[in-house]
Design goal:
about 300 residues; alpha/beta; 5-stranded parallel beta sheet; two-stranded antiparallel ribbon; 12 helices; 7 strands; about 10% strand
C-alpha cells in the first residue's frame, strides 16, 4: 500500500528506506494567487479585525493550505501564516477536519541566536564580547520558553517544529565556529533534545554556507537539516570531491596542478565576496572598527585557549 505524504515524511526523517515520491515542503508558499486565484496575506491581516472576521481569515488559511498541498504533493505542512498560537492550533484543526492525518504538521520553534538584523547587529556583537554570561543566561531562558510553548502546541495537534534561525551568509557563518560553539551549539542541542523528549519531529533550517558548523548541526540530533543552499555559488559536492582527490595524490601526479587551480578559484570566489560585500558594509557601520577588532581578537584568543585546555 502506498505511503501517505505524512508517512513518506516520517520515513525520511527517521531514516527508513525511501519508497515512492521524495517528501517535499516549503517554509512559506506565497504564490496562492498565481496558482489558485486566492489572495495571499500575512498575519498582519488580522490586526484590528472582529472575532467573526478573524474566524473567516483562519478558515481561508486552512483552505489555502489544503488546496496548495494537494496540488503540489507536499508532505509537511509548515504553518507560518497565523498571527498567534491560538489561531495556529485552530488552522491545523480545520485542515485535519478536511484531510485528516495526510500531512506532518509543523510550525516555527527556534530559540537560538541567529544572524541579527541590520538595526542591532553591532549591538548584538558587542554584547557577546562584553556580556557573555548575560547572553548565555538569555539563551537558556529562550530555550526554556520555547519548550514550554512546544509542549502546549504538541498537546493541541502539532507534530513538530522547524528551527529557522539563520546562522550563515553565503560566505560562511555569522559567528566564528568557536563563538558558535559557545553561544549557539549547547542551546541548540538542548532545544532539539527537549523537543524530541516531548515526542516532536525537528527540522533545523539555516541558509548559507553551513560547512564550518556542519558537525554542530548534525550532532544536535535534529531529524532533518534544511537546506543545503546552492546560492553561495560554491558547489559543496564538487569541493568535497576535489579535496578528497587531492588528499590521495602527490605533487607531480597527472592533473594535480589543475585540481589545485580549480580549488583555488573556489577559495578566491569566497574572498572576493567578503571584500566586495561584507567589508564595505562593515566600513559603513557607525562603529570604531579598530577598537572592535581588538576586542574580537582578544576574545578569539580566549576562546582558543579554552578549546586547547
Amino acid at each position: 500500500m502506498p505511503r501517505t505524504p505524512r508517512e513518506t515524511a516520517v520515513a525520511a526523517l527517521t531514516g527508513q528506506p525511501p519508497a515512492g515520491l521524495v517528501p517535499t515542503f516549503e517554509l512559506e508558499f506565497q504564490l496562492t494567487e498565481e496558482f489558485f486565484g486566492r489572495r495571499w496575506f500575512r498575519a498582519e491581516a488580522f490586526a484590528n479585525v472582529s472575532a467573526a472576521e478573524r474566524d473567516k481569515l483562519i478558515g481561508r488559511i486552512a483552505d489555502d493550505y489544503v488546496a496548495c498541498y494537494e496540488a503540489l504533493d507536499y508532505s509537511i505542512l509548515f504553518e507560518t501564516r497565523s498571527p498567534d498560537d491560538e489561531a495556529r492550533i485552530e488552522v491545523i484543526r480545520r485542515v485535519r477536519e478536511q484531510v485528516g492525518e495526510r500531512y506532518l504538521y509543523l510550525c516555527h520553534g527556534d530559540a537560538t541566536y541567529g544572524i541579527p538584523n541590520g538595526t542591532n547587529m553591532v549591538d548584538f556583537t558587542v554584547r557577546l564580547f562584553e556580556q557573555p554570561d548575560e547572553m548565555k543566561r538569555a539563551a537558556d531562558a529562550m530555550v526554556d520558553q520555547a519548550l514550554e510553548r512546544g509542549k502546549r502546541l504538541l498537546d493541541h495537534g502539532l507534530d513538530g517544529f522547524a528551527l529557522c534561525a539563520d546562522y550563515c551568509f553565503n560566505t560562511g557563518p555569522f559567528l566564528s565556529p568557536p563563538m558558535f560553539r559557545e553561544f549557539v551549539t549547547p542551546y541548540l542541542h538542548r532545544l532539539v533534545q527537549g523537543y524530541r523528549d516531548l515526542g516532536a519531529y525537528v527540522i533545523k533550517h539555516t541558509d548559507g554556507n553551513i560547512m564550518p558548523i556542519l558537525d554542530d548541526l548534525v550532532d544536535s540530533g535534529a531529524h532533518g537539516l534544511h537546506s543545503l543552499d546552492p546560492q553561495g555559488s560554491v558547489d559543496i559536492a564538487e569541493v568535497k570531491r576535489l579535496v578528497g582527490e587531492l588528499e590521495a595524490m602527490q605533487p607531480g601526479d597527472d592533473l594535480y596542478d589543475a585540481k589545485v587551480t580549480v580549488l583555488a578559484e573556489y577559495v578566491k570566489h569566497h574572498v572576493k565576496e567578503e571584500e566586495t560585500e561584507i567589508f564595505p558594509d562593515a566600513k559603513r557601520a557607525d562603529v570604531d572598527l579598530d577598537e572592535l577588532g581588538e576586542r574580537m581578537e582578544a576574545r578569539a584568543v580566549e576562546l582558543e585557549g579554552r578549546a586547547d585546555a
